[in-house]
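Problem 12. The chain below contains 494 residues. Write out its predicted structure in token notation.
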Amino acid sequence: MNLNFGANLKRLRRERDMTQEELADALGLSVQAISRYETAAAYPDIEMLPVIAGYFGVTVDYILGVSEKERESRRDDYYSRFRAADSADERIEILNKWRAEFPDDWMAVYNSMIAVGELSEEKRDMNALRQIAKNALRRCTDPVWHDSLIYGYLNSEDDEKIALDFIDEYGSERDVSKLRLMSGYYHGRDESKERALYQYQMFVQINNVLDFLTAYRNVGDVRMAIDGCEQAIDILKKLSANPDLTKPDKWIDAKLLALLRLSNNYLFFDDRKNGFEALNTAVSLIENMINLPDGTKITCGTKRFDSLDCVTQKGATPCGGGDCLSILNGLAIILKYENLPFDGKCPIDERNFYPADYRSIITGASWHNFARYKDDPEYQKYVERVERADDVTDRKNVEFILTHGVVQNPNGGRLCAVRTVGRGGKRLLHVLIENPQNGFTRALEQFYGAAEREGITESEAVMTADGNRKIVDTPQEVVDWLKLNGMGAEHKHN
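Solution.
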């Protein structure tokens, strides 16, 4: 990336009619340092960049000369490489480069702190972690990211005393969240808004109670954990006014967590009948949710939460930059509120459903008793079902992504979907965007780079849509390119 830091610093200094000596004095630097920065003979340390940018009232990206388009492209590239990385060491390396280039990208900072906790104990640099956290919290003015950074740091901090001192310094003694403050403001002023905020707070609190009931770690006794899961399921049947747990509603996340935990706990005792029955119910619920048509009404099943009624909208989150996008995490069901009485900013988060979160629990057999059964033919049936339900490369899902605007071509040209298989058999979808200057040439070059990063072993061009989102013939240039570069449907890398 070409940095224009020196020229930008010089321009900003002159706009303030300052000498190099005056700027050096204001920033606590030497005149020689300012001179070297302006002539591009040197660059400031990463921690100094936000100080200089803050002094002039601009962003770090602005003073570096990074355009918004370039920033998003490079940021997406870092994110794609980070998600594709196989080891904690590799993720740390990518995140360090990402953070060095974009020191105020809080996603990079947050994931850096989380990644430290994934390293083996002897590899953790706790002093570096603590310094990253303190520097970030000193600079971060975004309240949402500020809280996330605190949680990210505490996730990786091993020393109890240091963690408690940190909480004492950065935490609030009382809950003064935006929701509580707004509820107080609307009390006596706007009954409908106060009611919506109150319903949302109760919905979140009930979900927290259900999580507490079903969590094994809260009791340490598997039989008691089974009782807790069954109590939670009984509560959910009453809350949703529907005894059929396979029917999707607003409580879907709580239902799935209770059912999967119940299955895992039964399998601890090798109770296959009850364990697989709960797993079958969970997978059926996932399948039913994914198959809902757009615009389906989703409720909590009671008038007590009618402000939170939603309609479904299927979607996916593409990542990557330029003319080749990747869809790594499968489909999502976006729950759009119907009746919230707020104009403009709304303090209530949309509660979206991500099947991949639950698919990974089952397919990865990440819970202890699922791991014991991962090679069992009966267990594998559920793995296959949940993989098939959320397979982003399945033809019907590819067609949805291309024809419903999940990925769009800003130039109005064609979109070509390439089905791939990556490391460990992970199925991915890449969408190539046609460029008016060079067709799919640049997109294919970027795809080749993504293939190297993600360890793609197979690839196949499966479907193309035109600028009107109509399915058309796949361009021969893409098919020929994949074959020419050893990446056609029949090719497998060693």
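Discussion. Confidence is low (pLDDT under 50) at residues 489-494. Students who got a different answer should revisit the alignment rule from Section 12.3.
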